[in-house]
Amino acid sequence: xEKRLAEIRNQIALCEKPGQDVLLIAVxxxxxxxxxxxxxxxxxxxxxENKVQELLEKIDNISAPINWHFIGHLQxxxxxxxxxxxxxxxxxxxxxxxREIDKEAMKKNIxxxxxxxxxxxxxxxxxxxxxxxxDSALHVAETLSFVRVKGLMTMAPHSANEDCLKLIFTSLHxxxxxxxxxKLDNIEMTVLSMGMSRDYKEAILCGSNCVRIGxxxxxx
Length: 220
Ligand SMILES: *Cc1c(COP(=O)(O)O)cnc(C)c1O
Known about the structure:
The chain has 220 residues and is of the alpha/beta class. Helix content is 41%, strand content 19%. Pyridoxal-5'-phosphate binds next to β8 and α9.
């Protein structure tokens, strides 16, 4: 793991432009607590999980001060279990979910940071707003007092070739800049979460500042 992590960090540094500070999130789904602790001891502090139950078990059994990220599809009836327990929810994919997070955050009197998940290519992935739906989601988010939209997230399809990846990542980066320029209430575009084991280099070259890597860290 040490060798692979050094390679990833090196590749990230090679792809970053000046001022583009990329956050590496270790996606620890299906990994053991021992593996997470090993990664923590190699300096990783941000970990991503995609299932509520698995996330909660890990939070309860690891004492290290980890920044937990929720990156999977979230059902509205499970929102109450993770609000207040993660630093960022990357995968808000409906207005209903946005409202539910606001409601639970209000009960706990906290502000919850979220990203809107965008389905850019409309292939494979079932989840995420279409690009045309983003404006209406943002207008709802503007009216909510307990959620703060901090950016956008996407997953590129497995089948995408390099040109296709570039198209997807560049178009989301443009949207990210465009939304930021609108200066909406409650909305600051600071996190652009795109890039996984197979495509993180392309994503960073297209403007990502947050990559979510699982396989390449934990399985090689
Ligand atoms: C599993 C997962 C990742 C990590 O994928 P790898 O190919 O293992 O790097 C990133 N983002 C999401 C949303 C995931 O579910």
